[in-house]
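Following up on my earlier thread - several people asked me to post the actual chain instead of describing it. Fair enough. Here it is, all 373 residues.
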Amino acid sequence: MKKFLVGLSAVILVLLAFQTGVSADKKEKKDYMVMFDGPAKKGILQAFGVNDGNVLRDFELLDVYQIELTDKQAKGLKNHPQIKFVEENAKAKAYGQTVPYGIPQVEGTTAQDNGFSGDGVKVAVLDTGIDRSHSDLNVAGGFSAYDSGANADPYNDGSGHGTHVAGTIAAQDNNLGVLGVTPNVELYAVKVLDNQGSGTYADIAEGIEWAIQNNMDVINMSLGGSSSSSILKEYSDLAYDSGILVVAAAGNEGSFLWFDTVGYPAAYDSVVAVAAVDENNQRGSFSSVGSQVELSAPGVQILSTVPGNGYDSYNGTSMASPHVAGVAAQVWQAKPGLSNVQLRQLLRDTAEPLGAQREYGYGLVQSMDAINQ
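Reply from S.P.:
Thanks for posting it. Predicted structure:
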């Protein structure tokens, strides 16, 4: 009999412990937001056992309280006719910025981690303009080769092409959107293509002239044509002779038999012609080939900024060229005593070889290797 009573006592203790645990769980308070739809707010809360100590916040513009409630209190309030909403106070977090694969591929992030983000270097983006209102871009100034209409505004980018190029160079390190190669460069919007993405060699020449007159360090031209121009060549040469590093997209004509398909101005000796590779360092099938190809950079499915605070992925040597322009700005910040000719040679010498010269040039541009050379 004594053994039975001892066993029964043990069972009762276990049951009591279980009930205590269940009771404690039921009384555990959680963080809720409650919105009223009627008067007597304090009275309703008190009726459900909510005291002032459980009210964490009383909003002003809407009849909303942040309150600590048990599950039972929350359920009761949800069923009350003068309560509009009862919601658990959900957690939120900042949307972190994405680092497009091309930025670390050219060692841009490593260079940033070592303090080289393009500070003090001026980069002119000769393109369709740049959406200056984009939260991920900091545009220092600009110029338009057009005299009137929407195209006269360098910050009106109806095409989106120039804004995308600008993001690869200089999207801000701000926990938003994407990260560019050189977030701290002085970025300039030089509109030489209209809102449909077209322009003339005269427009490009005027943009180069503006860049020379305004002491730019790097010119990026993610554009080109199939025919040469003596005057465009003269302006490209003049920019290079003035100490500017001139970078341009090689073109998207792919390969055709043994012919060189690099466009202009990239094909000029004074311009660094950039081919496109993917995340595996394979040449993009669209990327132009030829003896003029000098460097390679990521240009396949490149995520970057577009007008209206948006982001999108584009393909093209247009996307590869700004990677090189950004790397050049990082290296020039690290080695400000270099001339543009010396900088160009350094980028060649430290590029990662990828294959045939007419497809890849000297190879994949590498920022940190150039800085450490």
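The chain has a mean pLDDT of 90. That should answer part of your original question.
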